[in-house]
C-alpha cells in the first residue's frame, strides 16, 4: 500500500511540475505576454530550475532550458519510480533515459488535452471569460490546422474533439511503448 501511495504522489507532483515546465516553453512559442497572471505563475513555479539552465542553453523562439528542465524532472521521476519498483536504476540507464523522453512526450500530450478541455468548457460556460484569449492563443497551433479540415456545423467547432481523439491515441501509443520498455507503469 505504501508503494501505491508513493507512486501516486510522485506521479502527481512530477506530472504537474513537468506540465508547468512544458507550458513555460509553450507560452514562449506562442508569445504570450509575461505579465499575464498564468504566465507569471508558471514562471515563478519553474524559475528555480530553468534560470540556471538558461545560463548554459541558448534562448530563442524555443525555450530549450524549459524543455531540458522537463527532461531532467522526468529522468528523476523515472529513476524514483524504478527505485520504488525495487530495481537498481544503474542497470538500465539507457532505457531509463528513453523512458524519461517518452514521459516528457506523455506530459506534453496530457497538457494539450487539459488545455483543450479547459478551453472548450469555458467557451460553452463563459465565452467572455478573461482566460479565453489566452486559451485560444495557446491552443491555436493545434486547433487551427484541424479547423481548416473540419467544417463548422451550425457554429459548433468540432476541432477540439478531433484534437482530443488524436492526442488520446498518441498518448496510448507512448504509454504502451514506455510500459513495454520498463515492465511497469510510468
UniProtKB/TrEMBL annotation:
It comes from the Bacteria. The chain crosses the membrane at residues 7-27, 64-84, 96-125, 161-184. InterPro entries: CCB3/YggT (IPR003425). GO terms for cellular component: membrane. The keyword Ribosomal protein does not apply. It holds the Pfam family CCB3_YggT. Keywords: Membrane, Transmembrane, Transmembrane helix. This is Membrane protein. It comes from Caballeronia fortuita. The lineage of its organism: Bacteria, Pseudomonadati, Pseudomonadota, Betaproteobacteria, Burkholderiales.
Amino acid at each position: 500500500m505504501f508503494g501505491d501511495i508513493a507512486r501516486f504522489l510522485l506521479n502527481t507532483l512530477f506530472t504537474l511540475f513537468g506540465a508547468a515546465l512544458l507550458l513555460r516553453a509553450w507560452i514562449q512559442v506562442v508569445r504570450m505576454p509575461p505579465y499575464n497572471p498564468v504566465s507569471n505563475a508558471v514562471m515563478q513555479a519553474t524559475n528555480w530550475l530553468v534560470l540556471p539552465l538558461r545560463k548554459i542553453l541558448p534562448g530563442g523562439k524555443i525555450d530549450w532550458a524549459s524543455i531540458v528542465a522537463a527532461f531532467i524532472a522526468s529522468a528523476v521521476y523515472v529513476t524514483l519510480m524504478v527505485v520504488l519498483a525495487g530495481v537498481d536504476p544503474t542497470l538500465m540507464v539507457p532505457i531509463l533515459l528513453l523512458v524519461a523522453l517518452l514521459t516528457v512526450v506523455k506530459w506534453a500530450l496530457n497538457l494539450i488535452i487539459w488545455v483543450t478541455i479547459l478551453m472548450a468548457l469555458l467557451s460553452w460556460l463563459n465565452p467572455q471569460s478573461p482566460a479565453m484569449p489566452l486559451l485560444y492563443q495557446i491552443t491555436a497551433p493545434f486547433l487551427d490546422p484541424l479547423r481548416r479540415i473540419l467544417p463548422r456545423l451550425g457554429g459548433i467547432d468540432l476541432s477540439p474533439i478531433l484534437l482530443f481523439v488524436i492526442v488520446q491515441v498518441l498518448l496510448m501509443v507512448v504509454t504502451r511503448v514506455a510500459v513495454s520498455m520498463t515492465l511497469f507503469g510510468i
